[in-house]
Amino acid sequence: MARMPGAKYRPVVNVRKNGCRAHRGLVLHVQAGNNSPFGWFNNPISQASSDFWVSKTGEVEQYVNTGVDYAWAQGGGNPFYASVETEGYPGEKLTDAQVKGVAKIYAWGHKEFGWPLAIVDSTTAQGLTYHGAGGSAWGGHTGCPGSLRKAQRKDIIAAAKKLLGSTPETNPKPAPSKYVPPAFPKGLSPNHAKPSAKPLQKALKATGWLANDVELSDNYGPRTQKAVAGFNKKHGLNDAGVSYDPAIGPNGWALLFTLAYG
Q1: Exposed/middle/buried for residue 89 (C-beta within 10 Å: 0-12, 13-18, 19+)
Q2: Looking at the 3D structure of the chain, how many domains does it have?
């Protein structure tokens, strides 16, 4: 069990069990609200959650078994990065207590998973990144956590280093990117043959959503649609507005291919 000492553990239903595929680091988010999001994260209707939340007073809540299960925080990045929501709004800076709270999480992750004490603006590199870096594949929240909080990542890493007694010279280097999902093919949609549905079908087979006995076809037919609808619903994706839609969108495409080949 990867539970952080000192954090209040409040498990939620919005979680993918045994879904983590890597431990690249931590994604900084802003709540765009106040008070604990536990009730929202524990409501299946919300289709949302995070690994951690840090209040303005520095209180830390943990909602999933970090490093084993993943929260529904950043679309295609969920299987690879942990996430932390921070109380408040994008136009507000993190309080000193919040900076210390996030630093405690990061220092724990450094010891538990080897997160590098580094700031990255990436969806593949290891370190402390931010939600907006993921663009559409991470939900399109380009303003999260806001420029003020994004800039405070340096303060978080500095505080984590202080907690660990580390120096910059001892920090591990970020690992190079190993896999980048192919670009989403514009126009891919149910009951059409252009662009071809074969790459989508291969990825669905690789992740177990489409039976191996289904013959590959350019046409985005009923069985492919059914597999995509199940995948969308399982992962809380709503690229087309509803989680059970049979159309694959950019977020689902990125997550599917990363799970299949990343």
Answers
A1: middle
A2: 2
Per-residue pLDDT, averaged over 83-110, amounts to 97
- DSSP H stretches of helix in the chain: 38-41, 96-113, 147-151, 153-164, 198-206, 222-234, 250-261
pTM of the model: 0.68
CATH code for the domain in which residue 255 is found: 1.10.101
Number of neighbouring beta carbons within 10 Å of residue 66: 26
**∠ CA(33), CA(20), CA(248), 5° rounding?**
75
Residue (of 82, 95, 105, 74) closest to 6 by Cα position = 105
Neighbours of 126 (CB within 10 A): 24
Domain interval for residue 25: 8-170
pLDDT tens for each residue of 48-82: 999 999 999 999 999 999 999 999 999 989 999 99
Same domain for 50 and 135: yes
The DSSP H or E segment spanning 15 is strand 15-16
Contacts for 31 with CB less than 8 Å, ≥ 6 apart: 37, 53, 85, 86, 87, 88, 89
Question: For 103-156, what is each residue's pLDDT tens digit?
Answer: 999 999 999 999 999 999 989 899 999 999 999 889 889 999 999 999 999 999
Residues 166, 205 share a domain: no
